[in-house]
Amino acid sequence: KMALECYALEGSFPPSVEYLKENYGLIVNDDAYFYHYQANGSNMPPDIRVMKKWKEDKRKRNKEREIRKEK
User: Fold this and answer.
1) Torsion angle defined by CA atoms of residues 7, 9, 11 and 17, in that order, rounded to the nearest 10 degrees
2) Which end of the chain is more exposed for a tag (fewer CB within 10 A), N or C?
3) What is the pLDDT of residue 41?
């Protein structure tokens, strides 16, 4: 939705997710999701995919955080 808003306001689609974060206030949760963003030129909609990470990954990260806290 924000990519389309960017197109409407600026006349081109955003080049990256980072651009949307910096200029449009996009909030992402890198701990829970993978984000795929492929720009297809300034006048073509980007390929955007959001995929949930496996729960195992989350448990592993939580263990790693606990270990770091203990140190």
Assistant:
1) -40
2) C
3) 85
